[in-house]
Amino acid sequence: MNAASDNKTVYLLASGDLRLSANQVCWPAQQQMEAALTEAIRSMGWEVERAHEFDEAAGHGFIASQRQGMEVFRKLDPDRPLIVAEAVWQYSHHVLAGLTTHRGPILTVANWSGQWPGLVGMLNLNGSLTKAGVDYSTLWSIDFQDEYFLSRLRDWLNTGVCRHDESHVRSFGGADDAEANEVGSRLAEELLRDKAIMGVFDEGCMGMFNAIIPDDLLHSCGVFKERLSQSALYYETMQTSDEEAREVRKWFDDAGMTFHTGPNHDSDLTEDQILLQCKMYIAAVRIADDFGCNLIGIQYQQGLKDLLPASDLVEGTLNNTSRPPVRSRDGSRVLFEGRAIPHFNEVDECAGLDALMTNRVHAAFGEPVETTLHDLRWGDHDASGSVEDYIWVLLISGAAPPEHFIGGWKGTEGFRQPAMYFPNGGSTVRGISRPGEVVWSRIYVADGLLRMDLGLAKAIELPQEETERRWKETTPPWPIMHAVLKGVSRDQMMARHKSNHIQVAYATSEAKAKQLLQAKAQMAAELGIEVSLCGDVD
Asked: Beta strands 47-50 and 9-13: pairing type?
């Protein structure tokens, strides 16, 4: 249906977190964003009707559960244009059910801010809608007064659609580099022949529908899920001895990691929290060995958060080749000796498949195998003026390996996780990503098929005061990468990217980065994944 109608009224709704504390803390930013967006819409002769009321008892105005979302949509006119406005991280499944049957035009909108962040939440919703086959348009703005935003908002209100430039994207037609072609094809053949096991500690973290790969699509790549329970991880954690935990803790100290601890469990990172994380690390490695997993992912947020400290120290450590040794329960073997164990944060299975491929491609070329997903969190120009390029802030709560950081383990710090998300605390794995050549990628599901976008980036070093500014605009306890994407503008990236997450891995030179990208693209294509190249990759 065309957005223009006699009744020029648009619904506005906001999907929120499942955690009450997060919704309450973040609500003022959402109010501010909605006020600016509403003003822009009204300036074009349209009215805004909020699709759900502020909840006085809860202290916020978000849709906070899937059931609430279904009830909200049940009362709406399914043909009226609708905007999902996000200034916060949100759980896509809160609104996905209603959006799948809404007939009117849908627009997702986020404020250009790293604070909570709406950009990440909107990108997850976009990826989820894409996977679900729901038509939508998308927009973003710093203040909702710029011409880029206003012109496209006007288009959407008048036609039900707004468009962006995606000329940076082209289909992959096969690796030009002969060695990359051979390696990528060989690795795909090996994976299809020998197969791999993806250990999944409870599926569907934080409503991320886009992060679940349907089994048949995963099987076609030679990868099969071992569905594991976080309750098993909790049990194994509690069976691990204090002595073993202290050995891991000592390894971190000897490697040079700095933990910022205090005495208060509710507000500080405590020694007990760290030791429980050390036990969880040992437990995760042992369970991965028990089931012959080639990679694992831990959900954590809506399961273990009430039982254990955060899993981030575990995740970042697993993704590093240099890590504390873990022996089998009888002490006879060192498990996965000398190897990183790819871990996909928040059980994002798309990132998991990507990490597995990245690990094998980089190993085949003798390049660094450490890889992680980050949130495509936010971006800004360098306020210090030291760099002219547009610089993205890639940031994630966990999974980043210390090998990525300036100084390695010695440049790694542990801070307490924010209490509104992580009531039992736990150490982060914080560092500043070192300068270097990076291959970025994302696997996603669209039209019932697996797809992969790849590009090149450069991680750069910024003055410390600029790094601190960016941390303060986002989440200071988390690891950060300052990334310049090659040949992809800010708005092109936002228009195209179908996930809150982006996978990154280092190469030792620009030439190697191009070769690694070609090899991974070839491997993906041989596995039946539809591959697109983004930006300057030649």
From this structure: parallel
H-helix or E-strand spanning residue 219? helix 215-219
Predicted confidence (pLDDT) per residue in 7-32, tens digit? 899 999 999 999 999 999 999 999 99
- Cβ(255)–Cβ(409) under 8 Å? yes
What does the block give as tokens for 41?
């819409």
Q: Report the C-alpha gap between 342 and 353 in whole angstroms.
A: 10
Residue in the block written with tokens 């619904």 = 11
Predicted TM-score (pTM) of the model is 0.97
Give me the residue label for tokens 């390049």: 367
Tens digits of residue pLDDT in 340-386: 999 999 999 999 999 999 999 999 999 999 999 999 999 999 999 99
Backbone angles phi, psi at 375, to 5 degrees: -75, 135
SS (H, E, C) 328-373: CCCCCCECCCCCCCCECHHHCHHHHHHHHHHHHHHHHCCCCCCEEE
Instruction: Name beta bridge partners: 138.
Output: 108
**Taking Cα atoms as reference points, which of 477, 464, 471, 500 lies closest to residue 397?**
477
Question: What residues contact 307, with CB distance under 8 A and at least 6 apart?
Answer: 234, 424
Identify the residue whose tokens are 């020029």.
8
- Report the C-alpha gap between 115 and 87 in whole angstroms: 8
Interstrand relation of 223-228 and 196-201 (parallel, antiparallel or unpaired): parallel
Cβ atoms of 312 and 274 closer than 8 Å: no
